[in-house]
Design brief:
4-stranded antiparallel β-sheet; mainly beta; about 300 residues
Length: about 300
Amino acid sequence: ATGISTAVQVAGGGKSGSDDWHVNNIGNTGYTYILKEDGTVSSLGYNVNGELGNGANTSTTNVCTVQGLTNVAQIAGSKDGNFGAAVKKNGTIWTWGQNTYGQLGNGSSVNSMLPVQVKSADGNSFLADIVQISAGYVHSMALKKDGTVLAWGRNDGGQLGNNNTSNKSLPVQVKGGASGSEYLTDVVQVTAGNWHSMALKANGTVWTWGENTYGELGINDKTVTQSGAPVQVVLDNGSPLEDVIDISANIYAAYALTRDGSVYAWGRNYYAALGQGTGSDYYQYYPIKVKSTDGN
């Protein structure tokens, strides 16, 4: 690709054809976003649902421009899904692509080939004061400047964190759950997986909600299949995972980086996702350290 030498962030989305079903039935549905120094966004790749945000639905390996976006601070591509999102420097959010479950957050379920602005919870205005976004499979998350969290889209696994399983095409505020407060607060980072969501609090603890079929919540309890409100990630001895400075959610797994440089993983070891030196497909219900290249 040319014309992207001024890139400051790159985000990918969709499926890369890395699993047998997609290789045989769909092929590559991956797409890429490039945030440039001038605050505009370029895109290329799969575009059947408007993933490229260029007003068309034709896939291309040529670099396009996501139309109408300027002063962008961060971009996100849907993990395993088909939509994109951007937060502007003024704290507003813009989304485009597939919208079957309301993941664009504009109060509808109609796909959009151009960016649309995410609305407020009542649908009468627009979200503001957003500092970070994350795009899951078919749900979205946003972190506000005040440390609270909003989510919208598909919710059958409880991934929106509002204590029910109804899909939402407008943002809802994530409840406090096991944190003890009415709503989740003091959050500094959010990340969305396929059917689960994660939040890092300022005190270095990690909170999760949504599906736990594969141990994605990291709560060391395989009897809990899902949680519609945040629960705290704990180690095998039941003590909280602490001193975390960064988090990330995979399709069926989750990761945390601690202050001492250790990386913890939990969830499904699909395609060796947990970094344990084995490709065996198994479920891990509490965080374990990712092994180094020497296996230790």
